[in-house]
Amino acid sequence: MNVAFIPARGGSKRIPRKNVKPFCGKPMISWAIAAAKEAGVFDAVIVSTDDEEIASVATANGAEAPFRRPADLANDHAATLPVIDHAIRWFEQNRSKIALACCIYATAPFLKPEFLNSGLNVMRSRPDAEFAFSVTSYSFPIFRSLKCNPDGTVSMFWPEHQLTRSQDLPEAWHDAGQFYWGKPESFAKSGIFSTRAYPVILPRYLVQDIDTMEDWETAERMFEALKNRSAV
């Protein structure tokens, strides 16, 4: 079985009730659930939550929320991998063995089913793969990045590249924060980037981190713009 797990706790601080807050007309989590179901590659879509309202919204939108996450995995310091490992173990103890698991973030309204399929293809085509996850490129060369110093001045993180042309610098990528395919046992390990992980490359216009209200407003504008262009 291939199973999607969507972690969605109730205690978000910077954007209260973020996972069920209306985003472009629907609860935020409903967009991730819809993408998982439309991908057609999952035998189950499971939401891991500690919150009854989130569970209710999840089930109303076609997912399952068959257990409540324990308190020690629902606080501000709980990391994603232990949350998914807990959900995998619950599923395998109560349902059946899992071939591949996919963590999908609840705040991923730009997630497209075709990229979930691409991640599955990576896992199937590379026997050594422990993870395949969404990445996108930085819009500016990170080797020309600056830091603000305590005295108010700025300096370069990599001053040796002060005169290097942008086109001569290597391209850099970052986690797009949408999904992570992995072998069940891989989620029990300490990290994704220290394992055999492969990228699924997303275009930048489909990536927006949503941690603050400014992020949220930016994401809504991006989403509406894509919708108006018939791209959503």
Number of contiguous helices: 5
Mean of the pLDDT scores?
95
Q: Strand tally, please?
A: 10
Tell me the Rg in angstroms.
19 Å
Shape: globular
Shape-level CATH architecture: Alpha-Beta Complex
Specify the CATH homologous superfamily. Answer: Spore Coat Polysaccharide Biosynthesis Protein SpsA, Chain A
Order of helices and strands: EEEHEHHEHEEEEEH
Distance between the termini: 29 Å
Q: What share of residues is helical?
A: 25-40%
CATH class: Alpha Beta
Instruction: Say what the CATH topology is.
Output: Spore Coat Polysaccharide Biosynthesis Protein SpsA, Chain A
> Which residues sit in consecutive blocks of at least 5 with pLDDT less than 50?
none
Count of domain modules = 1
Folded structure, characterized:
The structure is a single chain. The protein is 28% helix and 21% strand. It is of the alpha/beta class and 232 residues long. The mean pLDDT is 95. The strands form three sheets. A six-stranded mixed sheet has the order 4-1-5-9-6-10, with helices on both faces. A two-stranded antiparallel ribbon has the order 2-3. Strands 7-8 form a two-stranded antiparallel sheet. It is globular and about 60 Å long. Strand 2 and strand 3 (26-27) form a beta hairpin.
